[in-house]
Automatic annotation (TrEMBL):
It comes from Sediminibacterium sp. KACHI17. This is Triosephosphate isomerase. One of its GO terms (molecular function) is triose-phosphate isomerase activity. InterPro entries: Aldolase_TIM (IPR013785), TIM_sf (IPR035990), TrioseP_Isoase_bac/euk (IPR022896), Triosephosphate_isomerase (IPR000652), Triosephosphate_isomerase_AS (IPR020861). Keywords: Cytoplasm, Gluconeogenesis, Glycolysis, Isomerase. It is found in: Cytoplasm. Substrate binds at N9, W10, K11, G175, S215, G236, G237. Its EC number is 5.3.1.1.
Length: 253
């Protein structure tokens, strides 16, 4: 069975006290987790050490950075390297989130370099892809997403690709309260898996975890996650509310 993952993306929210309180509330709950049913918290960089310490005794719960740089070290003021993440015991990193692409002009090639350096340091990339509203309205979302995959991931070997988690984000459904229907989510997830199968073979494609990231809430998580090619979610706003995210975790297959 593919890994089913509930990933929380806190974005640029919460004070450290609020973050500690949220983790305390979430970690006090008993979840049915195992090797194939996991939780990831992507927290702001200043809170990585705190969050890692909080989950260090918890099985199948991991901490992710929200970004990293494409170099190991050097004169890159304000950036975070994979070496730094390794030194904290961080196991995952979110790469290519739509906000990074839009606000910081991160290109597919730049993201390919970040994917490479994360894998080189045994950090699991959660690679985000997805289309903005104008692309969806033009009906060219498949070609748009296929190009993101091709330019950022298709240089990888099959063994390397199997270490990547993909998160599909319909950008028009992030923070808007407008959610893709479960059918629309399944359609794109199936398309992504078909593209991976065409490049790497069906056996490899069937191993890749593909998360849905577009206004996942407690009220729609179970329906979204029940789709055959949806392997969990990358959750924004709802992950900041303990009672909401508990339900989302419990909605995993």
């Amino acid at each position: 069975m593919r890994k089913q993952i509930a990933a929380a993306n806190w974005k640029m929210n919460l004070t450290i006290t609020e973050g500690q309180q949220l983790l305390d509330q979430l970690l006090s709950h008993s979840y049915d987790l195992n090797e194939n049913r996991q939780v990831v918290f992507a927290v702001p960089a200043p809170y990585l050490a705190m969050a890692q310490a909080a989950v260090s005794e918890k099985k199948h719960i991991h901490i992710a950075a929200q970004n990293c740089y494409n170099k190991k070290s050097g004169a890159y003021t304000g950036e975070t390297s994979v070496v730094m993440l390794n030194s904290l015991g961080i196991t995952h990193v979110v790469l290519g989130h739509s906000e990074r692409r839009e606000y910081f002009q991160e290109s597919n090639q730049f993201l390919a370099e970040k994917v490479n350096i994360a894998l080189e340091h045994q950090i699991t990339p959660i690679f985000c892809c997805g289309e903005p509203l104008q692309i969806r309205e033009a009906g060219t979302q498949n070609e748009f997403v296929a190009k993101q995959l091709e330019e950022s991931l298709y240089h990888l070997s099959a063994d390397e690709l199997k270490k990547v988690v993909i998160a599909y984000e319909p950008i028009w459904a992030i923070g808007t309260g407008k959610t893709a229907t479960s059918e629309q989510a399944q359609e794109m997830h199936a398309y992504i898996r078909q593209q991976l199968a065409a490049k790497y073979g069906d056996a490899v494609a069937q191993e890749i975890t593909i998360l849905y990231g577009g206004s996942v809430k407690a009220s729609n998580a179970q329906e979204l996650f029940s789709q055959p090619d949806v392997d969990g979610g990358l959750v924004g706003g709802a992950s900041l509310i303990a009672d909401e995210f508990k339900v989302i975790i419990d909605s995993l297959k």
